[in-house]
Amino acid sequence: MDVVHQDDGRPNTPENVLQRSLEDFKATLTQAQRESFPEYTAKHVKVKILGIQHHQERVKAMMNFPRIQLFLERFEEFDRVCRSAKVAGNLTDEVSAFIWGPTAYILQVAQEDSGILIVVLDAYQAFGKRIPALQQHDEFIKSQPNDMMCLAHMYHDLLQFYRKMIKLLTGRGWKKIFHVDWGDYKSEFDIILTSFDDHGKILAELSKAWQQRNTQLPFGGQIVPWNVRCRQLMDHYEHERARKLQAAGEAERVRREEQTTEVLRWLRPPDGLEQEPRHKKHQEIRAQFPETSAWILKEDKMLNWMHEEIPPHNIMWLNGKAGAGKSVLASTVIDGCGNIEDFKTTYFYCRQDDPGLSTAAAVLKDILRQLLIHNQDPLPSCRHKKVNGSEEVLSNIDTIKSLLELFCEADMKQFVVIDGLDECRIQEVKAIVKFWTSMVEKCDEYKPGKLRVLFVSQYTDDIRKLMQNAVVFGLTPEQSDDDIEKYVKARLNDLQRRWEGYITPEETTMAKDRVLERCQGCFLYARLAIDYLSWLHHPRHVQMEWSENMLPPDLGKAYEKTINRLERENNNNNWNMAKKIFSLLAGALRPLKWYELQAALHIEESGSRILHRGDELSVEDIERVCGGLVQKLENRVEFIHSTTKENILASRHVDRRKVACDMAVLCLSYLSLAQFQNNLKSKFVEEAIMNGHYSFQDYAVAKWNTHLEMIIGFAFADFFIASGQDEMMLTEALANFVRFHMESIKLAEEKEKKKGKEKHLNPRPSQKQATQPRSPMSSQQSSSSRSPTPSQPTQSQQEEHDPANDCHALKDRPFYQDLVVLWTHIWKHRKADYKERYKVSLPNLDKALENSRKKIEELARDESKVDLLVQRYGERYFKCQRITCDFFHEGFETKSELDSHSNRHDRPYHCPSETCSMQPFGFSTNKDKDKHIRNYHPELSDGQAQFKHGPPGGKNPVPDAKHKCNICNKSFTRQSILKEHTDAHYGERKHACETCGRRFTRANDRNRHRKIHVRRPKGA
To answer: pLDDT (tens digit, 9 = 90+) per residue, 570-581?
Structure first.
């Protein structure tokens, strides 16, 4: 036979194939397994089986062990034949041992679970039926030991099975996932079984040819000697085996890729914005000033957390003031962790007032998504949950947690970094911290240091209470000053080069010192101050600005100065454009997509028409017009920082009430355009779609009623008296909307009356939960100011309530009658059951929405139109009908995904919290609903809330609490308690564990920690 060389340079002989197979297999084993397996023989395995049988008999759980008998017999034959023919050469004993050692191990572990043992015995039975009987070919094998590649391949295939089976029986929690993983492996196992058929077939053919060695054999129309015939048979066998293995490998690769894609789609964020682009944005900022932020990786606390084999604490809390550059520091830590061998790093940047970036479910799910990219071993379990669940996009936090636990139990060291924790509501913070704390504690029980978590946030008392087990890393102005100085120096040097000959190095040094003096550790202040200087057009103006009295004294004034410059230096059109963008981003009730912002900017101020979309603004245009206060990230537009919105609303240029009025006028006027008439010609709708006229419809249809509710809820009477222009625009928008939709308003009212009569004739018990309409502004307060949702009116209150009374403060305004008509319609619609309440309330608007969406789906099938459609409507055209559902505006890629998702809305039990992401979906049972409320909305449950709103510090003031903390103003009755509290601020830990040396802020924490050494003795 031809000699085939492998990559390692060794000839492709049976002995070398056996050796390579053994080396590859042993590389996957633990040291203990490599040492123990060579001690086993077939006799040891039989004794092991007898022992398992006796144990099964004692516990009355006898198994059908004869299923393994044929496997044992066949491989005993294999062992004897290989020895007598010396097929394995010097490896004979080792080859034999690694048949029996893994078998004994697999049976020993599998007996812990009777269901798993049944699967293992069935697998051995399947093997036994396919392994060829070698005894009948004994003489042939002895005569041709160097040609017994089929025996070497048989051994290789057996070790492949062992490798997978040992992996399935290894690791924490293997019993929970064994059956799912075995089901996923079954296709590969079947291929191995089929390969044994091929081994048996070639062996029989070779043996037959050998037996006829004294005769000439026909082959391919020719008479050839027996040895040539054998060579031809072996060449064909090797070729076919290589082809089949390659095809099987490719099929498995494709299958895994398809499953991975399927599961990653299931794990995608509802808005499609994953964390990687946000992290890349921070990396780009750091790349401009590479000398900054690296210091944090050299701090002792960070070095211990990142590099110690067993760090003093596996949870760290990095906290600092707003604008201190914490997110950039977090990105530095993320990249630093990513460079540490054997660790995988996941992260999340929270964002205030964005449910997709500020809930526990969102945070945990995206970390789960990243972990799956790092490690695909739990892929079968993820896919099993996906296939057996009812969600096309995962949102159930219990499912998310259960899958994250699997990844935490996997053989993988992990860093988790969560930035902006303070931008989440406290109940979400609690859920996030509680989960990761419990995961760290579980991992510490068997492998300390395996899981390490970094939380980054501003300092708050509520978060401090949750960080009892964390080492505290409090950022001080002094720590940030060095970075800020490098940043300011680099920016000012650029400015000096720009105005070379006008500005001296001494002046830039003076300017740097004055900026540093005012920023007090706030990186954002330095950025805004230097940006402002860079925008000035004459060196004299620059020199004037950095004189001592001209630089803004704080962050708020820096924002104000930036906005004043936009007003002064922009032409009138650009300044109006900037104000409109600020108004849209500050007033929007959810983050706007890029194409939604573009569409809103092209709606004429009067709302009478949509301007031509050919002159859309670029990203650079918007960043320039808005003075760098706005950024585009993937397909969404947002302010550059969580402090930007409030500072813009606090400025004299952007009135909070005018923003609310403008958003109401925009939505009402837009929905009164001809594009939302019924019975429009298909050609007209198509043209409007391609021109982007429906790009803003998802937002306007879902939010017009809430923006109108804000007009009622805010104290607007004085505003309209002072602002006649805004009053006139709202009056016109309301009048046009009522006139345009009056027929639908009447239809909805008639439908409500009809249902009321049916309900009166056929009363049905209602849910105990809130099913009544919200009070004006309740939803807005919950979403933006984070106040608790007000209690809902009782049935009797509802029957007595007149919606016109809610509008009483505006009774003297010219739009009052139209406002009452619409608010009455909204109020009555919110009285409907859940199935109706979250649908579009106006029938004609609902129909127009349905028609335009169907037309978009149809046009998307035309490849020549896809690029423009994606630009103006995104990539997901199949959208939910429920206006409060994220997928009303996010959509799905396929109709089947939408249909599957829509079924979830039919669940009968709903969360009473208006702002809960699960509220539109509901629960299958009342028990599940009550559990959800207890866990995530304790303030709405019968139990006491975990966090109460009250005085700073969370406790009622004590008259004798004279010892005050100069950091957070909290007071204490004793100096010793204050000292311990202050130590906690600075992360000082004076109470050491005598066993392991780990240190704690409080003695009680140290005493609680001591208990783990009872379970895990020192050195274990």
So the answer is: 888 899 999 999
Instruction: Give the per-residue SS3 of 697-727.
Output: HHHHHHHHHHHHHHHHHCCCHHHHHHCHHHH
Return the beta strands (E) in 508-635 as ranges: 630-633
CB distance 487 to 289 below 8 Å: yes
Q: Are 738 and 822 in contact (CB under 8 A)?
A: yes
Q: How far apart are the first and last CA of the chain?
A: 55
Higher model confidence: residue 783 or residue 549? Answer: 549
Tokens of 487: 């940043």
Count the alpha carbons within 13 Å of 519 in the hemisphere toward its beta carbon: 31
So what's the pLDDT on residue 800? Answer: 67
How would you class 52 by CB atoms within 10 Å of its CB: exposed for 0-12, middle for 13-18, buried for 19 or more?
middle
Q: Rounded distance, CA 152 to CA 85, Å? A: 13
Q: What is the pLDDT of residues 501-560, one digit of tens each?
A: 888 888 889 889 989 989 888 999 999 999 998 888 888 888 888 776 788 999 999 999
Q: How would you label 185-216 residue by residue, b for 16+ Cβ within 10 Å and e otherwise?
A: beebbebbbebbebbbebbebbbbbbeeeeee
> What contacts 893, CB < 8 A, 6 or more positions away?
265, 875, 876, 878
Query: If you search the block for the tokens 């960070």, which residue do you land on?
Result: 302
- Residue 906: CB atoms within 10 Å: 11
- Rounded Cα distance between 941 and 69, Å, is 60
Count of C-beta atoms within a 10 Å radius of residue 464: 20
pLDDT band at 347 (very low <50, low <70, confident <90, very high): very high
Between the CA of residue 263 and those of 177, 184, 188, 383, what are the distances in Å? Answer: 17, 14, 21, 6
**What's the distance, CA 406 to chain centroid?**
16
How far apart CA 371 and CA 403 sit, in angstroms, is 10
Question: What span, in angstroms and rounded, lies between the C-alpha atoms of 814 and 726?
Answer: 12
Please spell the DSSP secondary structure of 447-497, one letter per residue. Answer: STTSEEEEEEE---HHHHHHTTTSEEEE--HHHHHHHHHHHHHHHHHHHHH
- Tell me the C-alpha to C-alpha distance, in Å, between residue 227 and each of 208, 234, 392, 1020: 12, 10, 61, 61
Q: Report the Cα 91 to chain-centroid distance in Å.
A: 50
Helices and strands: H and E segment counts in the chain:
44, 13
| pLDDT of 779 | 40
Beta strands in 147-260 (DSSP E): 217-219, 222-224
Residue 497: phi and psi, rounded to 5, are: -65, -35
The secondary structure of the chain in percent helix, strand, coil, rounded to multiples of 5, reads 65, 5, 30
Residue 831 tokens read as 């009285």
User: Which residue is it, tokens 């199935």?
Assistant: 835
The DSSP secondary structure of 277-306, one letter per residue, reads: HHHHHHHHHHHHSTTSSGGGGGSHHHHHHH
| CA gap 773, 827 in Å, rounded | 6
Distance CA(164)–CA(231), nearest Å, equals 33
Whole-angstrom distance, CA of residue 711 vs CA of residue 713: 6
Tokens 């123990």 belong to which residue?
A: 36
CB 487 within 8 A of CB 524: no
* Tokens, residue 40: 């086993």
3-state DSSP assignment of residue 1020: coil
Say yes or no to pLDDT of 301 above 60: yes
Q: Are strands 963-964 and 636-639 parallel, antiparallel or unpaired?
A: unpaired
pTM of the model: 0.82
The b-or-e profile of 941-950 (16+ CB within 10 A means b, else e) is beeeeebeee
Spatial separation of the C-alpha atoms in residues 130 and 152, rounded to whole Å: 16
The pLDDT value given to residue 394: 92
Other CB atoms within 10 Å distance of the CB of residue 287: 8
> For residue 863, how many C-alpha atoms fall within 13 Å in the half-sphere facing its CB?
0
